[in-house]
Amino acid sequence: MALTKDQIKEAFNLFDCDGSGAIDASEMSLVLKGLGFTECSERDVQAMVKAITDGSGSVEYKEFEKLVLGRMDKAGSAEEIWRAYHLFDPAKTGRISFEDLKRVAQMEDPCVGDDEVMRVLNAVAEVPERGISLDEWKHVMQSVSK
Fold first, then answer.
1. How far apart are alpha carbons 129 and 120 in whole angstroms?
2. pLDDT tens digits for 3-60?
3. CA–CA–CA angle 79, 89, 19 (5° rounding)
4. Residue spans of alpha helices (H) in 17-145
5. How far is CA 109 from CA 4, 29, 39, 106, in A?
6. For residue 86, what are the CA distances in angstroms to 2, 9, 14, 36, 115?
7. What pairs with residue 59 in β-bridges?
8. How are beta strands 95-96 and 132-133 bridged, if at all?
9. Distance CA 25, CA 129 (A)
10. Beta carbons within 8 Å of 7's beta carbon, 6+ residues apart
């Protein structure tokens, strides 16, 4: 099933951590990893961003939409969602904690602040203090990939 424009916009807004209206390479890397594209290195993501932008290094919504639609037929399988979840929960606790989310975010961008991490946690987790369950993760990733 194809993504709706609303779903694509929701994903864009979720990962536009700084609210700038554009996603930079580090935010784009988080999006791709969240969607299960764990094979994309930082260099790959930077090259992708450079290729689809006007050289600004920022992916605006229309560019994001085009990229997502081009890649979504490869994403969203249960196995890919599970692999992406365990990237964030390597101890297999069954929850992605604030610390887990921050660790992965800072692998991509060491300057990611607590407020940006908390914004994502609040958007995904029913009870942010308990972290993100696998079911919550699946719900978000499947809603983005439908």
1. 12
2. 567 777 777 787 777 788 888 877 877 776 766 666 667 777 777 777 777 777 788 8
3. 95
4. 25-34, 42-52, 61-71, 78-88, 98-108, 114-124, 134-145
5. 29, 9, 17, 5
6. 26, 25, 20, 10, 23
7. 23
8. antiparallel
9. 28
10. 143, 144, 146
Quote the tokens at residue 112: 């990611």
Query: Hey, what amino acid is at 1?
Result: M
Please say if the pLDDT value at position 1 is more than 50: no
Q: What is the mean pLDDT of residues 103-120?
A: 85
- Cα 132 to chain centroid distance, Å, stands at 14
Q: Which residue has the tokens 């983005």?
A: 144
* More confident of the two residues 99 and 86: 99
Tokens of 134: 């696998």
Q: Taking residues 64-88, report their average pLDDT.
A: 70
User: Residue 114: its pLDDT value, please?
Assistant: 93
pTM as predicted: 0.50
Residues contacting residue 32 through CB under 8 Å, at least 6 positions apart: 40, 45
